Amino acid sequence: MTRTRDRTGRWPGMITDGLVASAVFAYNLPIQGFGAGPGGYAALLIPLGLCLPYLWRRRRPVAAFAAIVAVAALQLLAGVGLLAADVMLLAGLYGVARLRSWRWSVPAAAAVAGWVIAAVAPRLGEYFLGPRDLLSLLGLVLVAWFAGTLARTHSDHLASLRARAEQAEQERHAQVEAAAVAERIRIARELHDVVSHNLSAVGLLAAGAASCIDTDPRQARSALRSLEDSSRSAMQELRSMLGVLRSAEPTGHAPLPGIGQLRGLVEQSVALGVPVRMTLAAGSAELPAGVQLGAYRIVQEALTNVRTHAPTARAVEVCLRRTGDELSIMVRDDGTGPAEPDREDAGHGLIGMRERVGALGGRLRAGPRAGGGFEVVAALPVRGSG
């Protein structure tokens, strides 16, 4: 398709060049050249040789110009005087200056100027030719070269502007795509944290209710009520999160969780049988919303991993402490840790934590403890918070 458009776009220029060459050749026929020279076929072939190469001046400007100069040189050697078709030398020079660099156009201009001097100087004083006429013809050579060079400079400038505009457009598209990918990762991370935490709680509550529904119906009903509360809380948090993700405008949904909601998170884990003890240092709650959400999600994911992969843990410790411009988060347990560390579900949680900490410019270390159990330690920078 592109090649077809290029060929189609060349036709108007080729037709124009053909009309110009034909007009010059037709105009030359009834006009006698200055000075004696052969007639007959020579008088016909020389103008034809000067005009015909002009048809290729767009695709092969240097070759077309060289052919015109060669025919003009034969014209001098044959003793044919100046012809109207000699104007094709100027047209060929313009084509070289228009489509090629100075490395080609300057020698071309010198060649035409040399031809003009060789053709006119011997005839000064004849046929009304004087020094002023010679200077005028040399001036036309300069005008043809300058016009072609100016057109090429303008064309190169436009091409440079188009290239910069295309590059800017490509960069803009790349930035939009990168932002879209980052947004998808952020949404996936939020969904994973919310869904995995609440589904693990629902699973534990459902298993507890199923295990005692025959032996202790009251305990089973209590577990089912807790399951209902956990499901309702999960739906409310999902609605709040999706409402924020859909629009940056203020909404009527509850705000996203922060450090203030950690106690409820710990109480839920305790209710599910996970012995959690939390230490929250003073000043930790006076933090930017993004840091608070990050801290909440890290603790949430760590506690979810404890329930899922270390159900035998007898003690889980959660500690948040602000030191200068940094918030330290530590979650450790004394359980056996994940039996399969490279499982897909466990891997997604740790990857999400690392991405979240990295987005906030912090550091994360997660792995087995030397004395047994598992430990998650994160450090989030706090900027501009009082």
Automatic annotation (TrEMBL):
First-tier enzyme category under EC: transferase
TM annotation in the entry: 12-29, 35-55, 62-84, 104-122, 134-151
Cross-referenced PROSITE patterns: HIS_KIN
A Pfam entry, by short name: HisKA_3
Coiled coil: 151-178
Classification via PANTHER family: NITRATE/NITRITE SENSOR PROTEIN NARX-RELATED, NITRATE_NITRITE SENSOR PROTEIN NARQ
Name of the protein this chain belongs to: histidine kinase
SMART domains noted in UniProt: HATPase_c (SM00387)
InterPro entries on file: DUF7134, HATPase_C_sf, HATPase_dom, His_kinase_dom, Sensor_HK_TwoCompSys, Sig_transdc_His_kin_sub3_dim/P
Reactions it catalyzes: ATP + protein L-histidine = ADP + protein N-phospho-L-histidine
EC numbers: 2.7.13.3
UniProt keyword annotations, A-Z: ATP-binding, Coiled coil, Kinase, Membrane, Nucleotide-binding, Phosphoprotein, Transferase, Transmembrane, Transmembrane helix, Two-component regulatory system
Molecular-function GO term, any one: phosphorelay sensor kinase activity
Domain Histidine kinase residues, every copy: 297-384
GO cellular component: membrane
